[in-house]
Write a structure and sequence with these properties.
Elements (H helix, E strand, L loop, with lengths): L1 H12 L6 E4 L10 H15 L4 H10 L11 H12 L7 E6 L8 H11 L4 E5 L5 H11 L11 H23 L3 H14 L4 H11 L9 H6 L5 H12 L5 H13 L6 H7 L10 H9 L5 E4 L2 E4 L2 H9 L11 H19 L29 H13 L5 H13 L1 H10 L3 H16 L6 H16 L1 H6 L7 H4 L6 H6 L21 E6 L6 E4 L5 E5 L4 E5 L5 E5 L6 E6 L5 E6 L3 E6 L5 E6 L5 E6 L5 E6 L4 E5 L4 E6 L8 E4 L5 E5 L3 E5 L5 E5 L6 E7 L5 E9 L5 E10 L4 E9 L13 E4 L5 E5 L4 E6 L4 E7 L4 E6 L5 E6 L3 E6 L15 E2 L12 E2 L9 E6 L6 E5 L2 E5 L1
Parallel strand pairs: 1-2, 2-3, 34-35
Antiparallel strand pairs: 4-5, 6-33, 7-8, 8-9, 9-10, 11-12, 12-13, 13-14, 15-16, 16-17, 17-18, 19-20, 20-21, 21-22, 23-24, 24-25, 25-26, 27-28, 28-29, 29-30, 31-32, 32-33, 36-37, 37-38
């Protein structure tokens, strides 16, 4: 309300620079995310100056049509807004963001963006509850800004509420023809009972505005509205539950209270279960929603709470027992069960009636009416409700087993059509984790879910590009023992007369494949293993290691990327840029937070302190430097080495750090004193160092070259810091290790589980060793030439870079030799005659599982000839 008045004042004062504004609302997913806020601001900016649209077309046309709904589009949205604001017509523009605390998704990166805007020629006005997280996030920008605390200006707020009541009462008096005495009675009662609360006054005025309220009923009506919001909500709830349709009203309120986003009318009806049959059409359900005692409202066909406090009341107040008879957890259980039921009856194969199974997702148009409309919410959130429900009955598990055995592929098709594949992967992982802690009586369901998760992870890329391929190529090339393959092989079209012979018996160790447009150079897991950073020549991609989703792409403008390191909390990533600079970026927002410039020599290695305050660099000019990240100042310059410092590392407590050249030196973080020297064999070149988790020992890797590209022998030493003595040394033969070159990293250390090193022993072979004993744990033959690798901090997963521009995410345990993966063809029925065959293949039910060496089409496009394993094959 306050910001509405400010906006009106700004409009009147400066007609040439009307403010751009956005009102956040936690109960609406379209109004509660950082991306939505930026989309709204960008829309209003371009609406104000439509001639600027053409300047952005190049960026927008180049990107996917779903750019503005994608999490990857954040950086582009920021760049677009900054570009538009740079136009002289927006000098001294005003941007207003109301209720920042109601931004549920991405508030951290929004705060970073507000901080960025504070350095531009634009004024930003924000309002928020005084939450510590908001205050900390906006502190830097607020240092040079004026801020007002409403708690400290109670008198001004109270006066504003009185003015609002005056305005609303005048409207009521005019509408209902109040006498002067009645008008004064209403005004004085509202001022007395509102307790300076806008919402209370607005809700009561809404009730008094009802056309069914007679003049002689006004006084008694006023008496029904007790002062205070909670008391008012209690009265409203009692009134709603006095209806003849109390069961329906109770279910509507319960569903609205526990759903993870506001649902539309069609979705609400689906979630009501059997009670949904009482409201057979949208009009009937809208009428029922309006009977919910002013708790709910309908906007744009979607059901919302009138205010966040109304939802909080139903969830937290003791009165909620009248709505959710079994508690909120029980309501979650009802919703996931009703979701399964409605999905089982609604979802079908090829629900959008696409012309061909090779139709790409970019060519799909949502039909009107949309057959997925009633189940869109259920498809995304049913697993979230299952995991939140407190108790699970055996008969409910039977329903879920049926769903995975009969409807799983239809569900995958649906979430692909909705553009929510990554959400599906994330939900399946959550379900898998939840079932693992259950008793053995759920073993059948656990097996179904585990196989379904591998199925979805393995073929995610194919499915999200062409959803109907899930019934063709994906099924045909799945491992023979896959439960999904065995249960759904009936879905394969009859026009495929001869099915391919699949050699793979079971799922291999590759969990999922990440893709780069350019060749991937380096890899790094975050400490908790949640994120993976990969770099190519000119960009860095940050991946969600659980789902395989590329969260964002960072493109430095000033040089090629080098070594990458995560902060201990995994929220900041640092990388060497252009040999002489180190940049630090926020993982959540992709914004560059700090830049550290080193002018003396090429930076070979970097390490971050556990507290996130300092960074140490080892450089080619033999110098080791310690930096304060916040200020960008160099704290220590250490000249103790006579050869390039190839590696650096911080101790777990951050009190010391180590540098590797010749010898290994231990330095005091505060004073820069050299505390210890450890001298490896002078005939071996140091390559890497790592503190043990206890911080009292250091592991080192060094090697002796056979020639420019091969290693004769590698040694892994364990050093006692207090004495400087080498306690043990493991020797790895030349056949089991290669030296890293310019293209990637040939080894990666994991400090936990006894210490594990993953090493590249040839162009295509990976071996994992237990450092404590020198025992070879696992070995795998990779299908493509290896360009680099990284092992997760727990030693359980290995990310492998291939020269094909992909990153394979594999489990370390039980690695076995992997055969070269064959390309999965997008299959079409014989009658398909589309002209664009660039990414497609068709045939007469004749499929080959061998690697295709070359392929060509006849001039008329009706025949294809291919060379496979030395044979010429003509496909018609």
């Amino acid at each position: 309300m306050l910001l509405c008045g400010i906006i009106d004042e700004l409009n009147e004062e400066n007609s040439g620079h009307q403010p751009i504004y956005f009102f956040c609302q936690a109960t609406d997913s379209d109004l509660s995310s950082a991306s939505a806020i930026l989309r709204g601001i960008l829309y209003l900016l371009l609406k104000r100056k439509p001639q600027l649209v053409k300047d952005l077309r190049e960026t927008y046309d180049y990107c996917d049509r779903r750019l503005f709904e994608s999490r990857n589009g954040w950086e582009t949205l920021c760049d677009m807004i900054i570009s538009v604001l740079a136009n002289e017509s927006f000098q001294n523009a005003v941007i207003v963001i109301d209720a920042l605390d109601e931004c549920i998704t991405g508030v951290d990166r929004l705060l970073d963006f507000i901080h960025l805007l504070s350095s531009k020629a634009v004024r930003v006005i924000v309002s928020s509850r005084n939450w510590p997280t908001i205050e900390r996030g906006i502190a830097a920008a607020a240092q040079k800004a004026a801020h007002v605390s409403l708690e400290l200006n109670e008198q001004s707020v109270s006066a504003a509420v009185v003015a609002f009541i005056e305005h609303k009462v005048n409207q009521l008096a005019q509408k209902h023809e109040y006498s002067a005495a009645k008008r004064d009675l209403v005004h004085s009662t509202l001022v007395k009972n509102s307790h300076s609360t806008f919402l209370w006054a607005a809700l009561v005025c809404q009730q008094l505005a009802d056309n069914n309220t007679n003049d002689w009923e006004v006084e008694s009506k006023l008496a029904e509205f007790p002062p205070g919001l909670d008391v008012l909500y209690t009265r409203m709830l009692h009134h709603a539950l006095s209806s003849n349709d109390v069961q329906l009203i109770r279910r509507i309120l319960a569903v609205a209270s526990v759903v993870f986003r506001p649902v539309d009318i069609a979705e609400m009806r689906s979630l009501l279960g059997p009670l949904g049959t009482l409201v057979n059409d949208a009009r009937s359900l809208e009428k029922a929603v309006r009977q919910c005692g002013s708790f709910l409202t309908i906007r744009n066909n979607t059901v919302y709470f009138v205010h966040q406090s109304a939802k909080d009341f139903l969830l937290d107040h003791p009165a909620n027992e009248k709505v959710m008879l079994g508690g909120s957890n029980c309501e979650h259980g009802l919703i996931w069960m009703h979701s399964l039921q409605v999905m089982s009856t609604t979802l079908l194969r090829n629900i959008y009636l696409l012309d061909t199974p090779g139709t790409f997702i970019g060519d799909v148009r949502t039909p009107i009416p949309d057959p997925l409309a009633p189940v869109r919410y259920s498809c995304i959130h049913w697993i979230n409700h299952f995991c939140t429900a407190s108790c699970i009955e055996q008969h409910q598990i039977g329903h879920m087993e049926y769903f995975f055995a009969h409807c799983f592929l239809h569900w995958i098709e649906a979430i692909c059509l909705m553009g929510s594949v990554y959400e599906g992967v994330e939900s399946m992982k959550k379900l898998s984790s939840a079932l693992k802690v259950c008793t053995a009586r759920f073993s059948k369901l656990t097996s179904l879910v585990e196989d379904a998760l591998r199925f979805l992870q393995q073929y995610r890329y194919v499915i999200e590009k062409a959803p109907l391929q899930i019934y063709l190529s994906v099924l045909l090339f799945s491992p023979r023992t896959s439960l999904a393959r065995r249960l759904y092989l009936r879905e394969v079209p009859v026009w495929i007369a001869i099915k391919p012979l699949v050699k793979e018996e079971d799922w291999d160790t590759c969990i999922q494949v990440f893709g780069h447009h350019d060749q991937c150079q380096t890899l790094m897991f975050s400490p908790e293993g949640n994120f993976l950073a990969s770099t190519s020549l000119d960009d860095m991609k940050l991946w969600d290691a659980k789902t395989g989703q590329c969260l964002r792409t960072i493109r430095p403008s000033n040089g090629r990327l080098g070594q990458v390191k995560f902060f201990c909390d995994g929220l900041i990533v640092a990388a060497v840029v252009g040999n002489f600079q180190c940049n630090l970026w926020s993982v959540k927002t992709g914004c560059c937070l700090h830049t550290l410039q080193y002018h003396s020599g090429k930076i070979n290695s970097i390490a971050l302190s556990p507290n996130g305050r300092n960074l140490v660099m080892g450089s080619e000019d033999t110098i080791v430097t310690l930096w304060n990240i916040e200020t960008g100042k160099c704290l220590l310059t250490l000249n103790g080495h006579s050869s390039p410092a190839v590696a650096v590392a911080f101790s777990p407590d951050g009190c010391t750090f180590a540098s590797a050249a010749a010898p290994i030196k231990i330095w005091h973080t505060e004073t820069g004193d050299c505390l210890q020297n450890m001298q490896p064999n002078v005939n071996f070149r140091l390559a890497s160092i790592l503190y043990t988790p206890e911080g009292c020992q250091i592991r080192s890797i060094s090697w002796k070259r056979r020639d420019a590209s091969r290693v004769r022998e590698t040694r892994i030493g364990l050093w006692e810091i207090s004495t400087g003595q080498c306690l043990t040394e493991i020797k790895i033969p030349a056949t089991d290790f290669v030296e890293s070159g310019a293209e990637g990293t040939s080894f990666s250390l994991s400090p936990h589980n006894g210490g594990i090193i993953a090493s590249q022993s040839s162009e295509k072979t990976i071996k994992a060793w237990l450092l404590r004993t020198g025992k070879l744990l696992t070995e795998t033959l990779h299908p493509y030439r290896i360009a680099g690798l990284s092992i997760s901090s727990d030693g359980e997963h290995i990310a492998i870079v291939s020269d094909q521009g992909t990153v394979r995410f594999q489990q370390r345990t039980n690695l076995r030799h992997q055969k070269k993966g064959h390309e999965i063809l997008f299959l079409h029925p014989p009658q398909y005659t589309g002209s664009d065959m660039t990414d497609s293949f068709y045939g007469r039910g004749v499929l080959s599982t061998g690697p295709v060496q070359s392929v060509n089409f006849s001039i008329d496009g009706q025949k294809a000839i291919s060379v496979r394993q030395g044979q010429l094959i003509v496909d018609v």
